[in-house]
From TrEMBL:
Note on cofactor: Binds 1 zinc ion per subunit.
Record-linked InterPro entries: Aldolase_II/adducin_N (IPR001303), Aldolase_II/adducin_N_sf (IPR036409), MethylthioRu-1-P_deHdtase_MtnB (IPR017714)
Chain positions recorded as Zn(2+) binding sites: 131, 133
Essential cofactor(s): Zn(2+)
Name of the protein this chain belongs to: Methylthioribulose-1-phosphate dehydratase
Record organism: Herbiconiux sp. A18JL235
Amino acid sequence: MSSPELLHGQGVVQNVFGDGTVTDAALTEAGTALAAESARFAGLGWMPGTAGNLSVTLARSPLRLAVTASGRDKGELRTQDIVLVDEQGEWVPDSESGGAIARLALASKPSAEAGLHARIAAVTGAGAVIHVHALAAVRAGAAWPGGIELRDLEMLKGIGHEAHDELVTIPVVQNHQDMRVLGDDFERVYVRATAEVREVPALVVANHGIYAWGSDLRHARWHLELTEALLQIALATR
């Protein structure tokens, strides 16, 4: 069963030692929850084979994320198929994890996009980030490379916006193999929430896929599924 704290809590697991080391319990909860969510999206056809990746934020200072391991079938992940990464998306070695990697037999090779997960978590304060290869997102990114404008759609409420009389733009950036470049492009198009402006919790990477985030895995999932549905509607009615 997926961890209720990671799926339904405030996103950040507070099981952290004073030196920043994440506890075994937090890593186990993260691995269980990420495996369950990965299977869900693999079943939808959004994470074929080894494609796509998910992460949860485990600590803020220093930033630590559990991200799905590279090269693993996303429909068959086990609890230990996660990697502990830092603010750059780089593997945190066992010597800096308090021995948790060896004790829990965790993976040591993160998904290639872990760096962008870390950047999104750092910039937005997200407790979870999901990246999948959903078809509507790819098609919409190709159709509207400057950003996907949505208006007067009921499901906009599900991503924190008005159903009517508000123009909502899902940002689009070009794909790049360097996560630092993609991270910079994400920050360029990301609009921080203010008293007057609401966040758009999704990013389309052209010819690649979509990222969505939220305070925890459940909210990240909602934002992903709702955004993909909105993009399907936009494509069907253009």
